[in-house]
Amino acid sequence: MDLEPGEHLIFEGHPSWRSIIGFYLKGLVLIAIVAAIAYFASSTSTAVVAGLVLLLVVLGAGYLKRLFTTYTITDHRLHIRRGIIARAEQQTLVNRVQNVNTHQSVLQRMLFIGNVDFDTAAGDDYEFSFNGVAQPHDVVDAVHRAQREADANPAAPR
Predict the structure, then answer these.
(1) Whole-number Å distance between alpha carbons of 62 and 65
(2) Which pLDDT band holds residue 157 (cuts at 50, 70, 90)?
(3) pTM attached to this predicted model
(4) What is the three-state SS of 53-78?
C-alpha cells in the first residue's frame, strides 16, 4: 500500500501461519488419499513421489496464501490486500470505524490467533475484518492508536 503524504504506518501484518493449519490438515488428508490410490494402482515409489509432490504443492499454496494477504493500519485508514494474480483490496478510513470486535474460537484461543472485525459507517452489508491474526488485541490497540492520532490531527488528509 502506498502511503499518502503525511500518513504514517502503525501496523502491517499477515495472517498467522497458525491460521492456516486447517488448510494444511485438509492437504494432508488429500495427500494420504492420493498416495493410497497411487500405491494400489502402481507401486510404492509412485505413491511416495505423488505424496511428496502434493506435499510441496500444499505447503507452497498455504505459504503463498498467507504471504499475499496483507493487513495495514495507518493513522488515516485500514487496508486489506489479498491475492497473487487476481487481487482484491479493501480499505476504509479510520474515522469511519465505529466498533472494533475480536472473535476467537476455542481452537483459535489455543493457537493464540483470532479475527478482528470492524463495524464501519458503511453499514451491515460491508464486511471488513482481519482474519487469523496473531495477538488480535494488539491489532485492536493499533486501531485505537490510529483513531487517537487521526483525532489529534484533524487537518490531515482523509
Answers:
(1) 5
(2) low
(3) 0.83
(4) HHHHHHHHHHHHHHHCEEEEEECCEE
